[in-house]
Amino acid sequence: MLRRLLLSRGLVLATGLALGSAASAQTTVNLAAFADFAGPYANVMNDMQGGRLAVIDWWNKEVGEKMNVRIALKTYDTRYDVAQTASLWPGIKAELKPALVLGLGGPDAAALQQRLPEDKVPMLFGTAAYGFGWKPNQWALNVRPTYSHEAAGFIEWFRTAKLEGKRPVKVGIITSEATPAYADMAKGLQAYAKANPDKATFVEAIWTEVQPADLTLQVRRLANAGTDLIVIQTNTAQAVATKRALQSLNKNIPIMLSLHNGVLGSSKALGNPNGFAGDYEVGAIADASEDDTAARKFYSMLQSKYGAKAGWNSMTMLGMGQAIVAVRAVEAAAKAKGATGVTGEAVHAALISTDFTGAQLMGLLPGVDFKPENPFPTGSAKVNIATMKDGKVVRVAADAPVPAIPKW
Description:
Blueprint: H1 2-24, E1 27-35, H2 42-67, E2 69-77, H3 82-96, E3 100-102, H4 106-112, H5 116-119, E4 123-125, E5 140-142, H6 147-163, E6 169-175, H7 180-195, E7 200-207, H8 216-224, E8 229-232, H9 236-249, E9 255-257, H10 263-270, E10 280-283, H11 294-306, H12 314-337, H13 344-353, E11 356-357, E12 367-368, E13 382-389, E14 392-401
Parallel strand pairs: 1-2, 1-3, 3-4, 4-5, 6-7, 6-8, 8-9, 9-10
Antiparallel strand pairs: 10-13, 11-12, 13-14
Helix pairs in contact: 2-11, 2-12, 3-4, 6-7, 8-9, 9-10, 12-13
């Protein structure tokens, strides 16, 4: 039911705005959004989508109304599938003529990265970036640096906080060759360790299935090698298999997760609400902890004033973070070109030329500074680090620096 509500809401919104624009002389700017209500992220998609919609509702009322600009969002279920995204795109482009697309993840980049410059439509991702997207003059942009940048930021914090800076962190990674995105995470981490032997020693990459049944033998190798930290930025299935292996081996090696497979979601999949206590989730975006942050205050306002239904969790944060950059880009394009000049090309120009501050982004991101040579933030990127305690997400470090990593 909620899925139908969220999907239909985009249609109703678009229709209502078209009718309202004639009466109020407002310009409607169409955005498209990709979602997965039927594939691997179906169980968390409602929160991400709810975060997107709440931010757009807020911007339309608080900002767009004063500019005579209104954003209409229409959502398409791509099932997190390359072929589905590629097949839907020509119709989306013809129907909406979107000024921007809210992408979901790797399949969307694979399907459209080469097409978007020709189509003159930028695409924004709330997820971290990939090394294979690290090319100049991109139209597929991530509001966070690469997964390997985020892991490197955490490793440097871990070395100081847990090892007192006395030696390099011995780090292993659980991943898969099933998708280019997953394989890229290992390549980037290896590149970081090779460039920084005083900070990290790369132990091993465990290549396994996307949904492994058992990883006991592989995790035993990591434990026997003296691994200090296991990085898993792929999915909850690999996180759960690794945790079960550690439990069966009676080993206590901390796991570093990303936001889309964070400590709450992974604990739920494990069947224990406190199952990932002492492990970490890391992202260059505000965390969904209980701390009284600017992002939490913004979320609470969206709940009270705009009826936001999404829960306070990392997936909602991804949707909100992606949407806040999108609306600020539309805002910047409208200021530069006028309300009727908000085209995909104008929005892309605004994204590349504007350094969005953390305050402009309502504390959801530390800042976003796209440049033609970098399709993700570099200078403004910082990671937030949270852990689990008593079944709750608790922040342990804010704005930890993200180091430079050589291209891989």
